[in-house]
Amino acid sequence: MSDTTPGSALPRQVADAYVDALIALDPITGTFLGVAESSRLLPDFSPAGQEALAALARATLARLDAAEALPGADSEAERRCGRLLRERLTAELAVHDAEEGLRLVSNLHSPAHHVREVFTVTPADTEEDWAALADRLRAVPDALAGYRASLALGLERKLPGGPRPTATFVGQLTEWAGTGPGTGWFDEFASAGPASLRTELDAASGAATAAVAELRDWMRDVYAPAVEDAPDTVGRERYARWARFYNGTDLDLDEAYAYGWSEYHRLLAEMRTEAEKILPGAGPWEALAHLDVHGKHIEGVEEVREWLQSLMDEAIEALDGTHFELAERVRKVESRIAPPGGAAAPYYTGPSEDFSRPGRTWLPTMGETRFPVYDLVSTWYHEGVPGHHLQIAQWTHVADQLSRYQASVGQVSANAEGWALYAERLMDELGFLPDAERRLGYLDAQMMRACRVIVDIGMHLELEIPADSPFHPGERWTPELAQEFFGDHSGRPADFVESELTRYLSMAGQAIGYKLGERAWLTGRENARKAHGDAFDAKAWHMAALSQGSLGLDDLVEELSRL
Q1: What values do phi and psi take at 363, rounded to 5?
Q2: Is 237:171 a contact under the CB 8 Å cutoff?
Q3: N vs C: which end of the chain shows fewer Cβ within 10 Å?
């Protein structure tokens, strides 16, 4: 804490000093924040690197103890920041101390995925940018070797990753490695660099691609056989730990499971009503299958990118000044096509701290060139506007009033995903889904999130399927039943369903945060509305809610209710 004397820092200063120290250990975080010095580096994913992050968290909690005892620490701004910092670091340490980082294999969320993704947001506009990227490419082998060392130690300590995510990850690494020299993902990425650095970039990308292939071979030949008999599910104890990490609260998992079923039945009734309007006599998924063929579509990859951009631009024009009050730099968001070889779900990346890199939505095409509108509209209200983009860009915009930590690395997954799902519902409430086609697509997306709560908790805890379920009543959940149920209650293609279930198996407790987070946002809004009565101002509430930074779900409801 260079700007304060020892023991004099308040919670927000402690939090921001933590961010500075974190960036030094984790240059990927630095790049997402827009720190130029991070562009040449990658983190240490080895056991020693993981322990360094844990040591920073422990030291920061000790500093926070001292900070919260100081005069001024009880102000609203300091209290809220300290509350978030303590909750986040405590949850992160619980995961670390259980050695979860030694078994982190996923189709979406692993060190290898983070390494690849960071190249898509690293500046690449000038020769100097590309020189930094060449250094970062040269850092890929050590980063992947550190990750492999952690997985190897996990095997030694009888801490296996799941066999299904492992098999999927091997397939992804195979795609990233390419079919021959110069065809890997990193090779293709580097091919866009300037001619003046061609030799350097080709050598660096070739080394990165070779490291991917080496990791793939080890995962396939050593790791996969070692974990083939391990369970894909995590059990109640591990699940509760991960649910805390992703949701920022100690959940009553049985109550959450029951809530998922109640939402399932509510949404199913609404879907049947909309399906009848589209194809009389048909059920919801028959109607969605009909729309896949006969509904409105966007033809072409570039055409769908442009259409999604126009959808977000139109939403900003309609919402700004009426339901939100947006700064000019928050109004900018870009639609992008996701690089191949990743998971099937769309995603969002936030702006850099100075907004030189805007927020971006990413669409994985999965080889498709024809895109049904019903499956896109609600999703882009979720990923873009008024969903992830408005929340995360607004946090960045008001970071000087919060703390750097609250606006960035302190993000609680269920808070952000809950807001994005709330945003979908808000657009329905405001009349932006005027026809049965778009509204059935929205309800299908909502149903997917309800099914996530059911199958994610159900299969990891091996819970019983209720007697009033139309699907295998009285049986206990398995991953196979979960995939069948999810496929039966989704308009999405089989490869998406398979990718989703693999994601849930490798990120236990994350997928439930969408619906549970939405419930927290709705509860907070309703409490505030009751408190203010006729004087409740939805626009003012939205902006105050989006300007308070991230919080775990318990804290979120309390804070939203006070606004």
Answers
A1: -110, 115
A2: no
A3: N
Q: Are residues 223 and 270 in the same domain?
A: no
| Under 8 Å between Cβ of 185 and 341 | yes
In this prediction, residue 386 carries a pLDDT of 98
Q: How far apart are CA 457 and CA 480, in angstroms?
A: 14
Q: Is 468 helix (H, G, I), strand (E, B) or coil?
A: coil
pTM over 0.70: yes
Is 50 exceeded by the pLDDT of residue 395?
yes
Number of separate domains in the chain = 2
Read off the pLDDT of residues 301-340 as tens digits, 9 standing for 90 and up: 999 999 999 999 999 999 999 999 999 999 999 999 998 8
One domain, residues 99 and 248: no
From CA 23, how far away is CA 370, in angstroms rounded?
Answer: 41
**Do 166 and 223 contact (CB within 8 A), yes or no?**
yes
Q: What is the pairing mode between strands 297-299 and 370-372?
A: antiparallel
The pLDDT assigned to 4 comes to: 45
| 207: enclosing H helix or E strand | helix 198-218
Same-domain pairing of 228 and 247? no
Question: What count of other Cβ atoms lies within 10 Å of the Cβ of residue 387?
Answer: 28
Tokens 């279930």 belong to residue: 501
SS (H, E, C) 140-182: HHHHHHHHHHHHHHHHHCCCCCCHHHHHHHHHHHHHHHCCCCC
Q: What is the domain range of residue 50? A: 11-232
Three-state DSSP string of 239-273: HHHHHHHHHCCCCCHHHHHHHHHHHHHHHHHHHHH
Whether residue 1 is predicted with pLDDT greater than 70 in this model: the reply is no
Final residue of a domain: which of 197, 232, 267?
A: 232
Tell me how far apart the alpha carbons of residues 16 and 499 are, in angstroms, rounded to a whole number: 36
**pLDDT for 7:** 60
- Residue-wise pLDDT tens digits, 336-350: 999 887 777 899 999
The enclosing H or E element of 503 equals helix 494-506
pLDDT digits (tens, 9 = 90+) for 216-265: 999 999 999 999 999 999 999 999 999 999 999 999 999 999 999 999 99
Helix/strand/coil percentages in the chain, nearest 5: 65, 5, 30
